[in-house]
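call fold(seq) -> C-alpha cells
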Amino acid sequence: MTSKVFSAAIIGLNAMPIEVELDTTRGLPSFNIVGLPDKAVEESKDRINSAIKNSGLLNPKKENLKIVVNLAPADIKKQGPTYDLPIAVCYLLNTKQVEFNYREKVFAGELALDGSLRSIGGALPIALMAHDQGFKEIILPKQNTKEAAVIKDLRVVGVNNLIELANYLNGKIYVEPEKTVDFSELLKKE
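ret:
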C-alpha cells in the first residue's frame, strides 16, 4: 500500500516541493529511504520509529512492516531533519492512523525521540513555496509559525508533538492557525 504527502527542499534562499511517498508490505521489519537523502535524512528512520512508539501510535517495527520511502524528485539532494515530520505523517496515513486530504498540505519538522517537534530552518521559504504552488496549509513545529505567518492567504498551523498532529488531522481537535503577520510590523519591532 502506498501513501503520499508533500514537503519541501531548501535550495539556496528558495524552496521546492518534494513528494514524500511511502510504501509498506508485510515482512521482516526494514525502513529504507531513497531519493538522494543525506546522513541526517537517513538517520530520521530512528527518530521516526522512536517518536511514533513513544507517542503511543502503531510502531513500524512492532507491525513487521517493510517500509520504503521515496523523496521525489530523486535528483535533488535532500538535507537535514525537515523530512522527519512528513515521513512520519505519511506512515500514519499509510497505516490508517490519520485520514486527510494530502493534496492541500505541506509538512516540515524535526521529531524528537519523545514525539515532540523541534524548530527547523527555512520555514519562510517553505511557506512562500507552499503559497506559490497553491497549497492551502502548512504544518510546522509551533516554534516556526510566526516566521511562516508573514505569507498571506496560507493557513499556518503549528503543533507541539506527533499526537497533537494526529488528533488535528483526524478532526478530533482544532488547532488555531497562526495569525498572518504584517512583515513591515515585524521590522518596526526590531
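The chain has a mean pLDDT of 94.
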